[in-house]
Amino acid sequence: SGMADVAALTGDSSYIQAIDRIWEDVISGKLYLTGGIGATGAGEAFGGDYNLPNASAYAETCAAIGNALWNQRMFLLHGEAKYIDVLERVLYNGLISGVALSGDLFFYPNPLESYGQHKRSPWFTCACCPSNISRFMPSVPGYMYAMRDDLLYVNLFIDSEVQVPIKGNSVKFRQETDYPWDGNIKIRVDPDSTARFAVHIRIPGWAQEKPVPSDLYRYMNRSDEEITLKINGEPISLELKKGYARIRRTWNKGDTVELNLPMPIRRVLSHPEIKDNTGKVALERGPLVYCAEWPDNQGSVSNLFLPDDVELQVEHRANLFDGVSVIKGQTRALHQGKQEKEILTQQQEFIAIPYYAWAHRGQGEMSVWLPREESLARALPKPTIASTSKVRVSQDKKGTPINDQWEPRDSNDHAHPYLHWWPTRGTVECVQYDFEKPETVSVVEVYWFDDTGRGQCRVPVSWKALYKKGDDWIEVENTEPYGVKKDMFNRVSFKPVRTSALRLEIQLPKKFSAGIHEWKVK
């Protein structure tokens, strides 16, 4: 943002060329569909081109605000609508997702996929996001309009009124709209006296078949619905330049401009180099990105897939999140059958909500990108001894992720929830399962968390399993050694015991901490 200001104020072509290259680099390979930026929390950094993981996305709220500030300055520098297109995408999606509807809870990162580990917080040790949100929200009116000489730009579509001086004439503009739920925008123009000047109205990229000003994302199918523009009820042709419908005429008090931006449901595909989105689709309507969340989809999202031929409809729900339009239809869900490898496919109702509104109804699964075919969905597993157990962890650490039946990609997987004891190092820690009822068990499998190269957790020095007998804890008689290998389940068999609880005692490395991705019991 500062560099764009210097470029604008000095006109130095080297600054302008450099800031343009940086912008193109971000928009072409480093921008999330929600407008979020920053693929990794390690160093609070961009990843390489097309490195846009969904579940581990950093997409910090402050970075979203910075992205909005930057694109506003790029617009002021170049006068092109594509910068406001990005600003709008950020504003309606990855920025306001950073604050709860109540206004007092905040996200630091804004991932595009969750397995239930995310919730907004009232404060942070490094509290940049709450203060940035509270500062940014009152500034939104300043992004709606812009002026240059006898030209007014209408950039954002929000019910509003503004009065500006144009060549000595005071002109009031009144904008009436229910955007983003509706694409009808009416602008009343009231000059103090008849005058000739120009009004440039942004025609969003999403309404012109371009979700972003690059090939990073595209719509699956073209829409045949047309944009219309009227003055005093009479249709006029769209004269587009730099993304704006240009209207230069003599204006009289009470003149009205009516813009209609059709808002069909759009299926979005991403660049094939974005590996996390291979075979997946996202949903948009107008400027809003949608997501599927667990409360609307029978408690799970990861087991859903959305075939291309599923018909989708829009339904406005006034009693949901202060009033939102949802997308709904009939989709497919996978469930594990009675046999271990038996997969059942069921049809069920599907509902998607605006992304900004997720995580207001408790913690659970959410996803922006949905599989288009069955092979990419995860069958909802049957309950197990471990998944139905109550978890207890030393130091009151949250332990429920270790029995959520999500298997990590590797020990350094940060996408799925995990348990860790950081910053404790060198101690003996424990984790315990209290079974729903006494069980006869003889096997445990543990997948260790190890973030070498990123953090301070390593596989443990040693560990052992104990079972509860009365009020005592007794070590099991294991028939194979306790493994501490990375990137795999470490299986230990032992003489069968009947018990109401199992415990793992874990010796942390002297200079490091440790953690667990998943713990199975059989």
List the SSEs and their pairings.
Layout: H1 2-10, H2 13-29, H3 61-78, H4 81-95, E1 113-115, H5 128-136, E2 145-148, E3 151-154, E4 160-166, E5 169-177, E6 184-191, E7 195-202, E8 217-219, E9 228-231, E10 234-236, E11 240-241, E12 244-251, E13 255-260, E14 265-270, E15 280-285, E16 288-293, E17 304-305, E18 312-317, E19 324-336, E20 343-354, E21 365-367, E22 370-371, E23 390-393, E24 419-420, E25 428-449, E26 462-469, E27 472-475, E28 489-507, E29 515-521
Parallel strand pairs: 3-7
Antiparallel strand pairs: 1-21, 2-3, 4-5, 5-6, 6-13, 7-12, 8-14, 9-10, 9-13, 11-12, 14-15, 15-16, 15-22, 16-20, 16-21, 17-19, 18-19, 19-20, 23-25, 24-29, 25-28, 25-29, 26-27, 26-28
Helix pairs in contact: 1-2, 1-3, 3-4
Features:
single chain; 522 residues; mainly beta; eleven-stranded antiparallel β-sheet; elongated
Q: Could you give a quick summary of the protein structure above?
A:
The protein has five helices and 29 strands. By secondary structure, it is mainly beta.
Structural commentary:
This protein is mainly beta. The protein has helices at residues 2-10, 13-29, 61-78, 81-95, 128-136, and strands at 113-115, 145-148, 151-154, 160-166, 169-177, 184-191, 195-202, 217-219, 228-231, 234-236, 240-241, 244-251, 255-260, 265-270, 280-285, 288-293, 304-305, 312-317, 324-336, 343-354, 365-367, 370-371, 390-393, 419-420, 428-449, 462-469, 472-475, 489-507, 515-521. The strands form 4 sheets. Strands 1, 8, 14, 15, 16, 17, 18, 19, 20, 21 and 22 form an 11-stranded antiparallel beta sheet that branches. Strands 23, 24, 25, 26, 27, 28 and 29 form a 7-stranded antiparallel beta sheet that branches.
